[in-house]
Amino acid sequence: MLIVALQTLRSRWAGFLGTFVALALGVALLTATGLVLNATVSAPARAPQRYAAVPTVVTGYDQLRVETTNGVDSQPLGVPSGVPAEVIDGVRRLDPGAVLDRTFYAQLVRDGRGGGARTGHPWPAAALTPYQLVDGTAPGDDGEIVAGTDAGVAVGASVPVLTVAGVRDYRVSGLVRPVPFESALFFSEAEAARISPRVDAVATSAGADAVTGVVGATGGRVLHGDGRREADPDRAADAEALVTVNAIVGTSAGIAGFVAIFVVASTFSFAVVQRRREFGLLRVVGLTPGQVRRMVYTEALAVGLVAAAAGVWLGRAGAAPLGRWMTGLGLAPPWFTVGPATWPMITAFAIGVLVALAGVAAASARAGRVRPVEALRDAAVEGRAMTPVRWLAGLLFLSGGLYLMLSAAATDPESVVGRKWYTTVPMLLLVAFGLLAPALVPPVVRLVGLPLRAMRGAGAMVVRQSALTAARRTASTAAPVMLAVGLTGSLLGATATIDAAKATERRERIAADFVVLPRDTPGLSETAVARVRAVPGADVLASRATTLYVVEGGETLLRQSAEAVDPGALGRVALPPVAAGSLAGLDDGAIAVNAEWDRAVGDEVAVWRADGSAATLRVVAVLDAGISGAGVYVTPANAPAGLTGAVYVKAHPGTDTGALRRALAAATDGLAASVTPMPEWAAATAAKNRQTTVRGLQAVLGVTLLYTAIAIVNTLLMAVAGRSRDLAVFRLSGATRAQALRTIAGESLVVVAVGVALAAGAAALNLAGMWLSVVRLVGFTSIAVPWAAVAAVAGICAVLALVASIMPAYFALVRRRAISAAAARE
C-alpha cells in the first residue's frame, strides 16, 4: 500500500498541493501561537526596576486574604494597603536614612486635556531607581516639581498639574532622564504627603532579616533580591496584557485548527469523488475495501508528515515576528519576547498529522465502499450523495448548535456575550451545513439558479443542470466559500449585535442629557466633579468604579465590579432595572446587587472594600444584570477615594439644554474634562467597542480567508482538471471556446452563490439564537448584519473561483484538440 500511495501522490501531486499548503500553514500558526503562549506562561524573570538601587523594600499588602471553609482564599486588592505607621517607625530606627515612597496620580494638563506623565512621587524616591537629574535642581518648596525630559516642559516654566484633588500650578525646577517603565513627576516630600497621605513603600539599606524582624507577621511585605520586582508599577499591567495575549492567540489557534480540519476534510472528500473509477479499477485488480482505505490513509499520512514538518519550520521562524507585532500594537508588554521551546513544536507537529488523518477519515470510508463495477461507470449523474452516517453526523451537529442556542436563551442568556459561545456555535452550525450540503444543494441551486431560467441558450441550462446532477461535487467546491462567508457573518455579526444591544442598554438605563468625561486622563478630579454639581438646573450623578469582595457559598472569595454613586440622583439620572426592592434605601450601610449575587432584599452581606476594609451591608435592591453585567451600586463611603469615571447630567424640566451645556463646559474649563451629549457618547462608545472587537477578530478572519482561498483554488483546479472530457464534448457539440469558458465561469459563480446561501443559513440561525438571548437581557434590539464585510468576502471568493476555474479550462482547451480530449478516457 505504501508504494501505491506514494505513486499516487507523485502522479496526482497537484490535487494534494492545496491540502499540503493548508496543513503547513495551519501547523505554522499552531507552532507560532504555541510559542507565544509558552512565552506568556514562562516569561523570564525581570530584574527589579522601581527599587533597583536599594536592597530591601517594605510595602503594604496587595492581596486580600479571607478565611473560607476551604481554607484561606485570596484576591488582588483594588487599592493596595499602605505601610502602617508603627512599621515605618521601626524601619527608621534600623535605618534613619530609609526613604518613604508614595505613588499617586499626577498628570500635566495641556490645552485643557491630560498629557505626559501620570505618576507622582516624592523627590527622595527618585534616587531609588535611580533617575538622573540632567537640568535644574530638586524641588525646593511645595510649589515646585521635577519632570522628565520627555514631558515637553522647560526648567522655570509654570505648568498645571492634575491630581485626584484637582488642578494646581507648579514651577518646573528640574528635569530627569525618563526610565522605560514609567514617566513620573516628582514633588517635595511635604507636598507628596499632602497629596497622598498613604505611604506605599519604605526603601531601606538594612538587611532583609533585620527588617523582617521589625515588620513582624502582619505589618507588611518585606521584598528583597528579585522579589523587589513585585513592587514595580507595571507588574499588574504586564500580567493583564499577557492574559490578553493568551486570549487572542488561543482563539486564533482554535479557529485555525477548525478551519484546517474543515478544509482538509473537504479536499479529501472531493478527491475521493473524482477518483471513483480509479478505486474501482484497484478493486478489479484485487484490492480489498480495507486496503483501499489504508491507501487513502497512507496518502494523508504522507502529506501530513511533510506538511507538519514544513509548518513547524515556518511557525518557528514566524513566532518572534508575531510577538513583535503584538508588542507594537500594545497588546503585549514592551519587554515581551518569544523564544524557542520544544513542546509547542512537537504538539503542533502531532496536531498537524492528526488533522490530516481526521480530515481523511470520512473520505477513506467512502473510498472503501467503491465497488469494482465503478470502474465501468461513466455517468455524469452521481449516485447517492448522502449516506446514513453523513445524515446522522450532520443532524447531530445541527442539533448540538440549536441546543446550545435555545438552552442559552432559556436558562443562561448572559453566556452569549462570551467569546467561547459566539465562536463555538457557528462552528457547529457550519459543520452541520457542510455535512448536509449535498442534500441542501438541489433546492439551493434551484433558488439561486432562477435567473438562469430567464436566459436564452444552452449555456445557462448546462450551468444549472451541471450543479444539480453533481450535488456532491457542488457541495465540496462550495464548502470553502460557505466557511469563509459563514464565519465572517457569524463572528462579526455576533459582536456587532452584542455591541448594538449594549448601546440599547446604555440608552435605556441612563436618562441623562450630557455626560462629563475625562480628556486623555484616567478620570475626573474632585474639583471637576464639585464644579459640575454646582451648575444649577440639573440633576448630577457621579460614578466611580470600585471593587468589592464577597465570599460565595462560604467557599470562594470573589472579586466583583461595582459603582460608587450619589444615592439621591441614582433613580433620577440612571434607571437600573429593579427586580426587587428599591434604590431609595441606598445609603452608607446598604448595597444594591444584581441577580448573579443570589441575594434577597433585606439580606446582610459581608463584603470587603477595594482597600481590604471589611463592612456588612444590607441589600436594598436586586437588579437585572443585563448584557453588560453591571448592576452593583454602593455609596462613595464604601469606595476608596479616587478619580471619577464619568458624571451624568440630566436637565430639570424647562432648563435650556444649550445653556446647560455651555455652563458645564465653562465649569470644567482647564480641568481636563469634556461635555458630550448622551447620543454622541453612546455612538462613540459603541464605535470604540466595535473597533476593539473587530481588531481582535481580524487575525482570526485573516487566517480563515487565507485557508479558504487555498481551498477554493485547490478544489476548483481539481474540478476543472477532472472535466477536460466534458469540455471537449461541449466543444464537439458546437460550442465555441468562449462559450465553453463562459459556461465554466457560470458554474463557478453558481458554486459561490450556493456557498453564500448555505453560509447565510448557518449565520442566520446563529444570529437568531443570539438575538433571542439578547432580547431577554435588554428587550427588543436589532440584529446587526455586517453586510459590507460579507459582500467583500463573497466578492473575493467569486474572483478566486473565476480565476481558479477559467485559467485551467482555457489552457485545457488550448493544449488539446476536442477529439483527442474526448477520447482520452475511452
UniProtKB/TrEMBL annotation:
GO molecular function: transmembrane transporter activity
UniProt topology in membrane: Multi-pass membrane protein
Location in the cell: Cell membrane
Coiled coil: none
Record key words, sorted: Cell membrane, Membrane, Transmembrane, Transmembrane helix
Domain named ABC3 transporter permease C-terminal: residues: 253-369, 700-812
Primary localization class, coarse: membrane
Lineage top rank: taxon: Bacteria
GO cellular component: plasma membrane
Residues spanning the membrane: 253-273, 300-323, 343-368, 389-409, 421-445, 478-498, 699-721, 749-772, 784-813
Entry similarity comment: Belongs to the ABC-4 integral membrane protein family.
Protein known as: ABC transport system permease protein
Source organism (scientific name): Catenuloplanes indicus
